[in-house]
Amino acid sequence: MSETVEEAAGPVRRRPARERLLAAAARCFYADGVSATGIDTITDEAGVAKKSLYNNFSSKADLVRAYLEARHEEWLGLYRERLEQAQGPRGGVLAVFDAYADHAASAYEHGFRGCGLLNVAAELPAGHDGRAVVRRYKEDVEALLVGHLEELLPERPDQARATAEHLVFLLEGATALAGLEGEDTRLQHARAMAADLLDTL
Length: 201
Prior knowledge:
Shape: elongated
Distance between the termini: 71 Å
Largest sheet: none
Helix content: over 70%
Order of helices and strands: HHHHHHHHHH
Radius of gyration: 20 Å
Strand content: under 5%
Number of strands: 0
Number of helices: 10
C-alpha cells in the first residue's frame, strides 16, 4: 500500500497563529481597507479563534501597526535584493525604484491598489500614531535616496538632498497613479525619468 506524501513526511506543520493572523490582515487590509475589515473577517480568513487574535495583538490598532511594520520590512527585503545587484550609488538610487516596482508586481488578490502604507494612512485621522509610523517609513526611503546621492555627489550635499526630495515626489506620484491604474507602467516610466535625471548630475 503506497504512502501519501503527508504520511511519508509526517503531518504538515501549520504556521503559528500570529503569522496566520498577520497574513490574513495583510490580505484584507490591502484589498478592502482597514475600516472595512472587521476582526471576525480576519480571524475567519486566518482560521483561528477570536481569542487567539487578542492573545497575539492587544487590539486591532496593534494589528494595524504590525501590518505596517511587516509591509515596510517586506519592501526593505526587495530593496536589499535589488541593491545586491546594483553597481555604485547610481544603481543604488535605481534599486529604490526597482523595489517599488517589484512590490507593485506582487500577486495581489484584487490587483495593485497603490502603496499599502499610504492607503492605511489615508484612513486614519490626523494625529493618529499610525500616520506617524507611515511618515517614519517614508522618511526611511528618502534617507536611502539621500545616502546614495551623497555618495554620488560627495561635494554637493545640498544638491543630493534636493535631488532626493525630487525623486521621492516622482516615486510616490508614480505609485499613486499606478495604484489607480492597477499596473506598474507608471513606475517603470518613473524609473526611466530618474535614470535620465541622474545622468545630468
